[in-house]
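Quick one, T. Sequence first:
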Amino acid sequence: MDNNKKQAKDVEIVAEVGINHGGNIDTARKLVDVAVHAGCDAVKFQTYWNIPEFKYLNFSKCEWYRLFLYCELQGIEWFSTPFDIDAVRFLDELGMERWKLPSNKIVLHNPDMMRAIKGARSRKQTIISTGISSFGDIEDYLLYFIDQPVVLLHCVSKYPTPINEMNLTRIGQLQKRFNVPVGLSDHSTSVFIVPVDAVAMGAVMIEKHITLDRDAIGPDHLANLDPRQLGRMVVNIRALE
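Structure tokens:
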């Protein structure tokens, strides 16, 4: 199937764990279980290797190996966003096939990281979140990664994002302007209106941040879905399909 003509039945649902494991491997596995139980297609993490302020959120190489093996044993795809070159090299060693670039343009403004990701032997698809990116930024990304399939994710970089600020018409604008598959990285807490409307507008991927407890201490829990909400969202999307 042409990657630019995916039908609604091909919508992928990605559960973004991010940093909500708090550096605890058991919590990370519980979040994988949540994604599996909800019926998500993939689970995504964030890997920091040489960023001191996030060191406590990273795992050892052995722990990462065990976590990704756990995902595979549970039958769910895994991938992780790297935030430094050593993380890129490590994830490439593990054979990660899908590479998600963050919204903050940390990669776009770091030529060494751009080259490292482009040179990753395992890379078969690049997923680019467009939060805070101009059309010019997106064009630069697409030109750089022109050799492999790319998915753009419409994203509003506000945590949480009010429903009336989601600007879902951007999905069609990105599709028309760049002629590549477009999905949504959703920072709202909507379990119906936003993700279902995004799919109806042609989104091929829905990425949603998840947590075990929205009241937990930390910077990234309030804008996330808890296990029950995630399950309801997946049911809503599959019902639309």
